[in-house]
Amino acid sequence: MEALDRLASLIERYAIVDGTHETAIPRLMLVRSSRPTEPAHAIAEPALCLVAQGRKVAMLGDGIYRYDRARYLLVSADLPLIGHVTEASAERPYLCVRLGLDRTLLSSLVVEMAAGARPAPTGTPPGLMLTPVAAELADAVARLVALLDRPSDIPILAPLIEREVLYRLLTGDQHEQARHIAMSDGRLAQVNRAIDWIRRNFAEGFRIETVAAEAGMSASSLHEHFRAVTAMSPLQYQKRIRLQEARRLILAEGRDAAQAGFTVGYDSPSQFSREYARLFGAPPLRDVARIRSDPDGMLVA
């Protein structure tokens, strides 16, 4: 697809070293990796991830999502994912655009499109979806990134092209998923309120009834719909958030394992070490030493 070739060229121009790069365009990030990476844990926020070159795998619960030039990834909630680049080389690096989804802008577009629009979506969508890349979407994303060549145009034209990108999502194969993200009163919105509460209070114990009340759901309904979106229960989600935050504290702030475990809510150092090793494949000290020996091998976006 010509638009994806153009997009790959643009990403290479502005992401000249491996890593995740913020841009002058709000919510737009460029990702590059010149080699396959180790599985990395991260919290993915609602976003469109469009690959221009290479291939990546995202894992959520038991689900495996492979995306490349043919399929983009749409994230509809704050999800603790495991992701790694599976196809990349120095000659043909992995190149990807990540556009964070502005729910307010998405909602305003849904309202503008209301006349003659499809009925409101029902049910609870999964938090991750793969969709074939349409030429119109790829072209709009490429034109958005091309604005980096003309910084003075960004304040005026970037919002217009971003609206076009979101319009393509709302009218494409994944239109129901995109409309769920825009809704403020659907099941996805309720689950997102529960997710937000857990993320703000992850270090504290909670009763499922408390989170259900925050979401405006019954406890049984929360369990059902929370699992549909995140592929895990609220308590499993809390545990994943705790362990990922503990890893960050050890890596970025130099906390020892016991301090990090206590900070994120663990009373028992041995339990913390066991659960940490179960998730990351090694106890804290060995895991952190491995990451520090090869920091470029862990691409988190």
Instruction: State the end-to-end distance.
Output: 24 Å
How many helices? The count is: 12
Main β-sheet description: 6 strands, antiparallel
* CATH domain class name of the largest domain: Mainly Beta
Roughly how much helix do the residues carry, as a percent range?
40-55%
Unreliable residue stretches: none
How many runs of DSSP E, i.e. beta strands?
10
Arrangement of strands in the largest sheet: 1-2-9-4-7-10
Counting copies of identical and different chains, the oligomeric state is single chain
The averaged pLDDT comes out at 91
Query: What global shape is seen?
Result: globular
Class by SSE composition: alpha+beta
Please provide the ordered H/E string of secondary-structure elements.
HEEEEEEEEEHEHHHHHHHHHH
Radius of gyration from the alpha-carbon trace, in angstroms:
20 Å
Strand content: 15-25%
Q: What is the CATH third-level topology name of the largest domain?
A: Jelly Rolls
What structural keywords apply?
Arc Repressor Mutant, subunit A; four-stranded antiparallel sheet; 10 strands; 301 residues; alpha+beta; 12 helices; Jelly Rolls; 48% helix; six-stranded antiparallel sheet
